[in-house]
Design goal:
The protein is an alpha+beta fold. The chain folds into two domains: 220 residues; 389 residues, Chloramphenicol Acetyltransferase (2-Layer Sandwich). The strands form three sheets. A six-stranded mixed β-sheet has the order 5-6-7-2-13-12. Strands 8-15-14-11-9-10 form a six-stranded mixed β-sheet. The protein has a three-stranded antiparallel β-sheet with strand order 1-4-3, with no helix packed on it. Strand 6 and strand 7 form a beta hairpin. Helix 15 crosses helix 20. The relative contact order is 0.12. Its main location: membrane. This is Diacylglycerol O-acyltransferase. One of its GO terms (molecular function) is diacylglycerol O-acyltransferase activity. It is a multi-pass membrane protein. It is found in: Membrane.
């Protein structure tokens, strides 16, 4: 199946959608949110600019003051009997080969070790990376402040010392021609020692391998010897380095204690804010397995893939500003539950009851049920909170635990430029402002959910859509309105014969997958005719009303509001906004059509026979429909407000409508042949 839906190839999407790459990742690399690389590079550039700014203070009087300060430091060391720089410097200068080696060590290893530490933490331990980055920035700013207020000339520039850089001809070392413009009056504190100590402190927090700690300690010892023997620093400079590192790390840890973990993006926290009793915001999937895997097999499968399932090992912290923090060991008795389908209960109703319950927020926000009692088959049901993933993100997570490894193709084309995206947001905001509200606000129902699934051949649905010159999403919208009018004409009449539908649109840059988690969706409002008629009778109207789906501006605008604009709003305002716009005041149904993989899979050795999506309703709306293509089938899940609309009756009417349309088309073709 192509990752880009196109009407020219009979695909069933209504917009161009870049599906997530589902890769086989090196297990040691966790998949979680990381700071944007460009932003981190900008921070690094700003830090270097601050260093250059301090360096620009040079003047004759400043040089004289630095010389005087250096002499005073040396006198204080002599009084303390710690002035070992002379002896070390003379011994090293008498050994040219070792001297040159020391100069290169001074010029390179502090840079290499710090850069490696930042890269390693960015890739392998993103949470530690934030602490490492923040403490690194702070220790450097503290050092720059010292350089600005108290310039100190290094010993090698004072009488009686040998300048090993000048005599050793070292390329790239401090004072050599290649860095001649570097600040040479920055002895106190020693940044070389500070960086080496900082690397050692950070490694102690991320690594438990003893050999790595030994290597780090050796690097600190070598750096200590080199900075003194090359006469680039005083002993007291080293103490100053220890002070700035200690202060920077302590302040950063104090700051992090008050703000633990990774902050939820506002687009994810949105679904925490709209959740209310009786309206759990859980997404996921229901798969029927052609076999009966054991509890241990499924548990081991999930445990093996936890590192590529973002936030499956985290819990929420913070009452208003939600953050992800480590949850500790997984309580498998809670997260993986083995149940037997009660006698006389159908699977759909049972799954609807299980998945409609709110997930406890003091644990990782996901659960899996193995449902037995289906003969030689087992149902695998997984849900996660909507703040972890959107619909297609939940599909990507399911693919992680299936075999064989699968990667959906992504079109090789550049995404929109920043200017075009900005223009689209502005245009979309104007369009959203003119969309208005539905003709009627439906009365609120109750907390009971109806849940029903149907499974239809994907090729048949695509053929029907082509016969009507429609996309599959347009066909689903038309069939939804007609089925509603047939099953509950009173409800259709209350909608003024026009059902206002929110259609989620996945907004993913080409080549960017959803396996980092989170919500990357916008929404487009479409009015679907709700009349008891034929698909052909409403075809033109549906295609005209759904034209907004073919341009991304509304989706871009709604995404911008959720992910960017709401950042500037206090939590109370965000909560009010979410509960105001996401519900029956603005739309009456959700229809989500999601493309999936086009091949067979197994879960712990058992084939997946059919798969259905699980989507939560918005507060107060009577109807939610999720459609997912999977290995030649279109699995459709219907979730309703059970006090307003019967889920099974509606699902049957929807299925009958689609199949009848196909049969009517076939009959017409047979009549034409006759």
């Amino acid at each position: 199946m192509s990752a880009t839906h196109s009407p020219h190839h009979g695909h069933h999407g209504h917009f161009q959608l870049h599906l997530p790459r589902v890769r086989v990742h090196w297990p040691a690399v966790p998949h979680t949110r990381r700071p944007h690389l460009l932003g981190e590079l900008v921070l690094g550039g700003a830090l270097f600019a601050a260093y250059l700014f301090v360096d620009s203070f040079g003047s004759a009087s400043r040089t004289a003051a630095a010389r005087s300060h250096g002499e005073h430091v040396l006198q204080l060391e002599q009084w303390l009997h710690v002035d070992v720089e002379h002896g070390l410097n003379n011994w090293l200068a008498a050994r040219p080969g070792l001297m040159t080696t020391a100069n290169y060590e001074y010029a390179t290893t502090y840079l290499i070790s710090a850069a490696l530490l930042l890269v390693i933490t960015y890739v392998w331990t993103p949470r530690l990376y934030r602490q490492a980055r923040n403490s690194f920035i702070l220790l450097n700013l503290l050092a720059f402040a010292c350089f600005a207020v108290l310039p100190v000339m290094p010993p090698r520039m004072l009488p009686g010392f040998i300048d090993t850089v000048a005599t050793g001809g070292t390329v790239g070392s401090w004072g050599s021609p290649i860095v001649a413009d570097a600040n040479q009056l920055a002895a106190m504190p020693s940044l070389h020692m500070a960086w080496a100590l900082w690397v050692s402190v950070m490694l102690a927090r991320m690594a438990h391998r003893q050999w790595l700690q030994v290597v780090s300690a050796a690097h600190v010892g070598v750096t200590l010897y080199v900075v003194l023997a090359t006469a680039n620093h005083y002993v007291l400079d080293v103490l100053g380095a220890a002070v700035v590192v200690g202060v920077a790390v302590a302040v950063t840890e104090w700051w992090d204690r008050g703000r633990p973990g990774d902050r939820l993006p506002t687009s994810d926290a949105f679904f925490l804010d709209v959740e209310a009793p009786g309206n759990a915001q859980n997404v996921g999937g229901l798969a029927l397995l052609g076999g009966a895997p054991s509890y241990a097999q499924i548990r081991d499968n999930l445990a093996e893939h936890l590192d590529v399932l973002p936030h499956f090992a985290d819990r929420l912290a913070g009452a208003q500003t939600h953050r992800w923090v480590p949850a500790g060991p997984i309580d498998w008795s809670h997260h993986l539950v083995e149940v037997t389908l009660p006698e006389g209960t159908d699977l759909d109703s049972f799954v609807g009851e299980l998945t409609g319950a709110a997930l406890p927020r003091d644990r990782p926000l996901w659960r899996v049920w193995l449902i037995r009692g289906l003969g030689d088959r087992v149902a695998f049901c997984i849900v996660m909170h909507h703040c972890i993933a959107d619909g297609i993100g939940a599909v990507a997570k399911l693919l992680h635990i299936l075999a064989p490894p699968y990667q959906l193709p992504v079109p090789d084309r550049p995404g929109p430029t920043l200017l075009r995206r900005g223009g689209g947001v502005i245009q979309g905001l104007a369009q959203l402002a003119t969309d208005g509200k539905p003709a009627a606000v439906l009365p609120a129902g109750g907390p009971r959910r109806g849940f029903a699934t149907i499974d239809v051949p994907l090729a048949a649905v695509q053929q029907v859509a082509r016969s009507h010159r429609m996309r599959v999403t347009e066909l689903l919208l038309a069939a939804t309105g007609i089925a509603l009018a047939e099953v509950d004409p009173v409800l259709a009449s209350a909608c003024d014969d026009r059902l206002r539908v929110s259609v989620p649109v996945m907004l993913r840059a080409p080549g960017v997958g959803s396996d980092d988690g989170g919500n990357l969706t916008g929404a487009v409002i479409v009015d679907a005719p709700a009349r008891a008629t034929s698909i052909e009778d409403v075809r033109d109207e549906v295609c005209r009303l759904s034209a907004a789906l073919r341009t991304p501006t509304r989706a871009l605008a709604s995404r911008w509001v959720m992910s960017s604009a709401l950042r500037a709003v206090p939590h109370g305002g965000r909560r009010w906004f979410a509960r105001t716009v996401y519900g029956r005041k603005y739309f009456q149904a959700i229809v989500s059509n999601m493309p999936g993989p086009d091949q067979a899979f197994t879960l712990s050795g058992c084939p997946l026979l059919r798969v259905h999506p699980i989507l939560p309703p918005a507060p107060g709306i009577p109807l939610t429909i999720g459609a997912l293509s999977w290995n030649g089938s279109l699995g459709i899940t219907v979730v309703t407000d059970a006090d307003v609309l019967d889920a099974r009756a509606f699902a049957d009417a929807l299925q009958e409508r689609v199949l009848q349309t196909r049969r009517a088309d076939d009959d017409g073709a047979e009549m034409a042949l006759r």
